[in-house]
Design goal:
Elements: H1 21-30, H2 35-46, H3 53-60, H4 65-83, E1 86-96, H5 122-135, E2 139-144, H6 152-164, E3 166-167, E4 170-171, E5 174-178, H7 184-192, E6 198-199, H8 207-213, H9 222-226, H10 228-234, E7 240-243, H11 251-269, E8 275-277, H12 297-310, E9 315-318, H13 324-331, E10 337-339, H14 372-381, E11 385-387, H15 391-394, H16 400-406, H17 410-429, H18 433-449, H19 456-467
Parallel strand pairs: 1-2, 1-10, 1-11, 2-5, 5-6, 6-7, 7-8, 8-9, 9-10
Antiparallel strand pairs: 3-4
Helix pairs in contact: 1-3, 1-11, 2-4, 3-11, 3-12, 4-12, 6-7, 11-12, 14-18, 17-18, 17-19
Bound molecules: S-adenosylmethionine (SAM) and iron/sulfur cluster.
């Protein structure tokens, strides 16, 4: 199929899928990763060019260890060049786990009769958000099953409720959403509540495999889900996140399909996805965990590096599904956001107990149980600047990753200073004395590095104001 960008038709009529499995396999089967070709593709990415499907196919087929190392090194360098050393932090907040779908990999699926289901009431949401604010969180992603209860009106209500919770110096400044796709009108209602990113993962872009894993409910409809973010765009919601659940089908196919989805959104709406997620399937309540396409750690690292090279200006999200060791490793190759202090069981942020996960209450197993404080401590140790920045979104600077990437000096002028300011707030309000000392050392070191910059005196001035009690200062 020749790729012709086609927008969603109004009103919501079925749209032709923009994924052609044969086309994607054609690219993969024809790609010959010679040394010259692989190096040429890496160089193209390092010159900050988006990679084509053909280029990406070369990288996914590369197995020669020396060349794989060059791919990893290329991603590491590109990440440093494009993003510097900031890592944005967030936490998921599950609002309700009722679900009418039967996705065979998920603990919330209808066929899991043992699932313990809840929808948090307003008072419980407030309590949870207060607990998250007490830990220093500023950015949340609200998560919902697919169920008539979780209507656009309900989601909009919960978003507004979350924004309204202020405890001490705590507040949530950005609420993202992970929920089922709506029609255009539904997306419009959710947008009006002031959300950041709306994430929908296609799970697998391979239609037959999709049918095999999605056994009941509205989510069975591959095309309705695939075109969900087109409807979001038509509703004016231009900040969207895509993703694939790795382990359902060949990872190389999913990587190319994610790039195709990106190109589709760029071609039709002039804006690509804000973020790409690449969860790997984890254990969940009585699921069949023998996966034909299980992705090894080695391939996982490689696929993240390839995504970094292929779409240099898209945020990459790595979650607590992965172990501490894998998170530590993958962080180097281009991840821009991670969660910290994650709890999946509904209503447990406000409980101090730290019990083992009960899979009938949770969607899946997580492998990084560290608190936000511990994660921030480690990030600082490794010279990453933890960031809670929400400036672009609040100033209406959408397409921020594109700006970071393409506007000369954008990171130096905006992103790094804002990361330092939000880190200062965290250190003042929530950190232990030890982390505070380490954090200020990193801030000072970074300020020395940006010494030549025009606004370095202004950054110092704002840091001093935060120390004196002002909050929410940004560029
Ligand atoms: N119900 C919404 C939906 O399906 O779009 C919300 C999705 S769910 C709460 C968020 C994502 O978790 C899913 O899209 C899926 O990719 C992922 N997920 C589901 N089961 C998983 C498992 N066993 N291991 C890892 N990730 C899983
Ligand atoms: Fe429901 Fe989402 Fe789980 Fe599917 S992945 S069963 S839609 S919560």
């Amino acid at each position: 199929m020749k790729f012709t960008p086609e927008r969603y038709s109004i009103p919501d009529e079925p749209m032709k899928p923009f994924i052609d499995a044969d086309e994607i396999w054609g690219y993969i089967n024809n790609a010959k990763p010679t040394k010259e070709k692989v190096r040429e593709v890496i160089a193209k990415a390092q010159a900050k060019n988006r990679l084509s499907l053909e280029d990406t196919a070369i990288l996914v087929n590369t197995t020669d260890p020396e060349l794989v190392e060059e791919i990893l090194q290329g991603a590491r360098e590109l990440k440093e060049k494009v993003y510097g050393n900031r890592i944005v932090l967030f936490a998921p907040l599950y609002i309700g786990n009722y679900c009418t779908n039967n996705c065979s990999y998920c603990g919330f699926r209808t066929s899991n009769r043992d699932a313990i289901r809840t929808t948090l009431c307003d008072a419980e949401i407030v309590k949870e958000v207060e607990a998250l604010e007490d830990n220093g969180q500023k950015r949340l992603i609200l998560v919902y099953g697919e169920h008539p209860t979780y209507s656009p009106e309900f989601i909009a209500h919960t978003v507004k409720l979350v924004y309204g919770v202020k405890k001490g110096n705590g507040e949530i400044r950005r609420v993202n959403i992970n929920a089922a796709p709506f029609d255009i009108e539904g997306f419009r209602k959710v947008k009006e509540s002031g959300i950041g990113t709306y994430q929908i993962f296609q799970e697998t872009y391979h239609p037959e495999t999709y049918a095999k894993y999605h056994l009941g409910g509205k989510k069975r409809d591959y095309n309705w889900r695939l075109t969900g973010l087109d409807r979001a765009q038509e509703a004016g919601l231009d900040d969207v996140g895509i993703g694939a659940l790795f382990g359902l089908y060949d990872w190389r196919f999913e990587v190319l399909a994610l790039i195709r989805h990106t190109s589709h959104l760029e071609a039709c709406y002039n804006v690509g996805p804000h973020t790409i997620s690449f969860p790997r399937i984890q254990d969940a309540a009585s699921i069949d965990s023998k996966l034909e396409y299980k992705v090894s750690d080695e391939d996982f690292v490689k696929l993240v590096a390839i995504l970094r090279l292929a779409v240099p200006y898209t945020g990459l999200i790595l979650t607590a599904r992965e172990s501490v060791a894998v998170r530590r490793q993958v962080l180097q190759f281009g991840v821009s956001q991670i969660d910290g202090g994650t709890k999946l069981e509904l209503g447990t942020y406000s409980e101090s107990k730290n019990e083992e996960q009960n899979l009938n209450r949770e969607q899946f197993m997580i492998n990084d149980n560290r608190s936000l404080g511990e994660i921030i401590d480690e990030l600082i140790e490794h010279d990453y600047i933890p960031s809670f920045c929400t400036a672009c979104y609040r100033l209406g600077r959408t397409g921020e990753h594109f700006m970071e990437f393409s506007v000369p000096g954008f990171i130096k002028r905006f992103c790094t200073p804002n990361a330092l300011l939000t880190l200062t707030e965290y250190l003042e309000d929530y950190a232990s004395d030890e982390v505070k000392a380490k954090g200020y050392k990193l801030i000072e070191k970074t300020l020395q590095e940006v010494h030549e910059q025009r606004n370095s005196a202004e950054i110092r001035n704002r840091i001093a104001r935060i120390k004196q009690g002002e909050r929410d200062l940004y560029f």
